[in-house]
Amino acid sequence: MSQLGDNSKTRNQAGKVSKEGGSQEPSDALFEGNGNEWETSEFLMMQRRLEKVAETIKLDANQLAPLRHPKRAFMVVVPARMDDGSVRTFTGYRVHYDLTLGPGKGGLRYHGQVTLGEVAAVAMLMTWKCSLMNLPFGGAHGGIQLDPQQLSQGEIERVTRRYASEIIELIGPNQDIPGPDLNTNEQTMSWIMDTYSVNVGHTVPSVVTGKPQSIGGSLAFNEAVGHGVSFCAKRAIKHVAWSGQAPSVVIQGLGNVGSVVAKSLHNAGFNVIAVSDVTGGVHNDKGLDLLALQEHIAKHGSVKGYQEGESVTNEELLELKCDLLAPCAVANQINASNADKIKARIVVEGANAPTTPDADDILDERGITVLPDVLAAASGVTVGYFEWVQGLMRLFWSDDEVYARLDELVNRACDRVFETAALEKVSLRTAAWKLALDRVVEARRLRGLYP
Question: Do 34 and 67 fall within a single domain?
C-alpha cells in the first residue's frame, strides 16, 4: 500500500511553481498536472472553485492552505485471479479529503481511466456536500482502474474483495463508509461489507451504504439523487418567481438519476420536452410521452429510434431552448465552448461537476440561474447517512419516513443557499460553497491544529 503525502508546492500548466503556494487558474481544456499526482484537470478545476470562493469570502490563507489538498491519498495494487487461471493486477485508490466533521463518506467507481486526481476531485466535492447538508461526515472517494464490461462477475467479485482487504485499515463505520458510484452497485457494496465483516469477526452493516435492503440497505436509496434533483428544481422555479405555462424541461442522461427526475417533474406538471442517454437524445417541443418512451427503451435498450420526436445528439440537446436544463450524465458537459449557446433559464446539476468554472462565469454573466451539484445532487449521500444511522441503530425506517427526513434536510439547505445568495449578492454555487466552507473552517478552528 502506498501513501502519497502532501506537497505544498502547486505547479501550473507550464510546470512552474507559482508564488504563495497557489496554482494559476487552468482553462477548461483537459491536461495533466505536473505537480502532485492528483493534480489532473478534474482536481485543478475543483481547486480553482475552492480558491475562487475563498477569495470571495476573504478566507484567511492559513485557513485555506490545509483545504487545498487531500488529508491522505492511498494507492494500492490489487492482484486478482482471472477465470482462465492467470493473475492480473489493477490499480486502486482511496482518498480522504477532509475528516474534520466525521468519518469519510464517498463512492467507489470502476472505470478503465480512473485517476487519482479524478478520485481526489470527487472527494473534495463530497466534503462540501456533507458539510452543506449538515451531515456528520467528511469527504472521501475511491476507484479502481478496470473496465467491468471486460470482466466476468466472478472476476469483479475477486477484484472487489481484494481491494477491500487492501484498504481495510482505512474503512469502517467510524472511519470511512464507501458507497456505490460509477459502474458499482449494491452487489459491490455487499461484497465489501462481507469482506470487512469476515475480517473483524462479526457483521457490520454500516461499513458501506447502498446495500440491498435484505442486508441492511435503506429504502429510497436508488431514487435519492433523482428525487433530490427534482425537489431542488421545484424550489429553483419558485426562487425565480416563475409565472406562466408549465416549465419545459430538458434532461441529459436518462439513467438512475435522470429517469427519476423526468418522472418526478412530469408528475409535478412540468413539460419534459427532451431526454437523452449514451446513444443520443429525442426532442419534442409539445412534450414527450414518458410512458411510451419507457416502453421503447425496455424493448430496444435505448432512446435511439424513438419515433415520437426529433433525434438530437447529446451536445445538441444541451443547447435546446427550455426553461430548465438538468445535466444528469457526466462531468464537464457545459463548458467554455458551449456555455454561450445554452438557452435554458435554469440549470439544475444532477451530475457531479457537469459545469466547468469557465462556463460558470459565462452563465452568470448571461443571468442563467445554476443550482449547483453540491446542493442538487447531495441527496444520495444524505440517504446514505440515513442508511448508516439505521445500521448503527438496527432500526429501519419506512419509505415515508426516509422521504420526509430527506425533504426536510434538502428544503433547509435550499433555504440557506437562496438566502445567502440574496444577502451576499453572489451566485447560488458561491453561496453553497461558502456555507459548506464556513462549517468546515469553524470546526477546524475549534478543534485546533495538532500538535
Answer: yes
